[in-house]
Each structure stands twice: as structure tokens, then as C-alpha cells.
Design a protein that fits this description.
This protein has 326 residues and is an alpha/beta fold. It has 9 helices and 16 strands. The structure holds threonylcarbamoyladenylate and magnesium ion.
Amino acid sequence: MTRILSLNQNSILKAAAVLKGGGLVGMPTETVYGLAANAFDSKAVAKIFEAKGRPQFNPLIVHVNDIDAAREISELNEQALILAHKFWPGALTLILSRKHDSGLSDLVSAGLASVAVRIPAHKGARDLIKACDFPLAAPSANKSGSLSPTNPAHVAQSLGSSVDMILADGACAVGLESTIVDCTGAKPLILRSGGVGAKELSDILGREIAYDLGEDQGNIKSPGQLLKHYAPSIPVRLNAIDLEEGEALLSFGSAKFMGVKGGSNLPDNMVRHLSKDGDLYEAAANLFAMMRELDNSAYKGIAVMNIPEQGIGIAINDRLRRAGGG
Ligand code: TXA
Ligand code: MG
């Protein structure tokens, strides 16, 4: 059985000991739970890929405690520094040039010349990094291609005994993965929408930031861009205005299902409300947990009501489209 320990000073020291010994720790962050290993230790990093069943070409995010630690492994150019000073610690991952003497395992960045770096806002995550004398490579703590975990139970369900220990700190505040911005080119580009919105990024950069979300499936920079990625085991149907026989409902807004035909007759176990008040942040925080709860092979699929394409709703819709297979 995986050890699940509540986050406190004592359990942080235990988790650091597991990491120093080359083990894997389920780590809370404000976005989603991560599956952490010593980013300098190739054997430990290889265990992440094995536990997730992740293709080795899919690189990992390296989590550090402060900007100085980021500089030890990567080059922060002018644009990157502007973003780092504004949004770190927080739900933003920067793709940066990897330093030759970074000491990082090559597996972390899957042989690329760049590396993904983030300082998490979650204090427990930063305390854990501080308690180690190395950065932590951590993808989301789920099997490759399935939903990201937003509470400790999800981590245990998804990864079982392949994770040595889980630091439990309840549900994640943001509930969606970080926004990924590629800073290695002439202009920063959004590779994955997430916790930090495009408008906030554009405002601080002083110009409109462009997306490269992998519409060109032959030329993918980040495997999170694969059209089918955050996928439950049953079909997901978006912008539903009615329900088909046997479908579960993921609602947003009015409890009357905004007129979704048949919605009001569903048994409780076949309905989840992302946010009855139409609050997009609440919806983001609930999204993955509720998709999991409705991911039942007895159902024909999950019908999802329209989510407004604004603010963090853009990231929610991105995940829903990928869950639906593009
Ligand atoms: O919020 C998050 O970002 C969470 C928490 C744990 O920090 N982590 C997370 O990691 O979502 P993961 O591995 O599930 O997603 C990382 C994404 C992948 O799509 C990967 O392809 C991309 O980042 N990535 C990593 N390194 C990259 C690089 N050098 N260039 C382009 N994309 C990269
Ligand atoms: Mg992931």
C-alpha cells in the first residue's frame, strides 16, 4: 500500500528522504498533483515514465523553489524574466534553453535543448523542494493520457503502489494544469492554456501573445497538445443542449440545466454541477474530479453544457475538447 501522509513539517522531511533515495512522491501543487522525482537522477526520473506508462519522448516540468534555482538549470531571457517576475510562484510553466551544465537528467527534457520550468505557488510544494537539494521533475500524477489528479485519492487510484508516498493536502486550488509558454523563440508562444490567462500574459508583455496549441498535429512541440489527451474512458460530447439516452450530464450554470432536455430527470449519480452559479474558477477546480466521477462504463458518454470561452473558460474548453478527442 502507498503511504498517504497529511502535509506537515514531519511528512515533508519523510518525503524528502524518499526523493533523496531515488523514490517517487505524489506532491500537492496549486494546479494539480505532481509525481515528483529528483530531476538530477536519471534512474528516479525513469521511474516516473514507468509509473505513468508515459512515452519517453514526452518531457517533464522541472519544479524549483526560486528564480536563482531556475537560473542554475536554464537561461531566462528578457521576456522570460518579465513573465517569471510577474507570475512566479504560480500556474505558469516556461520553456527555456537548458544550460549545458544544468546537471539535469537528459530524460527530463527527453533529449530536447529546452527545459520546462515552474515555481509552484503551493507552499507545501516549495517547502518540499527546499528540503531537497535538487529540483523536482514532476508531471501530473496520473497514468499517461488520463485525467490529471486534483486530490490525493486520485493519485492513489491512478498510480497505486508505483508511487512510494503521497503528501496529502486536499483538493487543488486551481484544478487545471499550468499555462505553458515557450520562451525559446523570438516571441513567447502559449503551448498549453491553463491557470494563467492569455490576457494577463499579453498585458504584462505589452503585446498580444500568440498560441501554438498543436492544431498542426504533424508538428507538435508539446505532447500535451495531442488532440486526444485528457481523456475519460467514455465519449465526451461538448456544448450539449439535450441529453441522449444513457448519457451523464456535466452541467454549468443554472440548476435547471439551462433547458437541457431530460437533464432534470437524471439520477443524482449521473449529474455533476461544475458551478451552479456559473463561476468559471469553481468550474476549473471541479472539472477533473467530476469527469472522473462520471467516467463510468455503464454510461453511454458524458454530455457537457456550454462553457463560456473567456478567461479560465478557455483552458477548461481546451481540456474538454481534448477529452472529447479533438
Ligand atoms: O500544472 C502543471 O503543469 C502540473 C504540475 C504538477 O506542475 N504538471 C503537468 O505536467 O501538467 P505534465 O507533464 O502533465 O505536462 C507537462 C507538459 C507536457 O505536455 C510536456 O510535453 C510539456 O509540458 N513539456 C515539457 N517540457 C517541454 C519542452 N521542453 N518543450 C515543450 N513542451 C514541454
Ligand atoms: Mg499531464
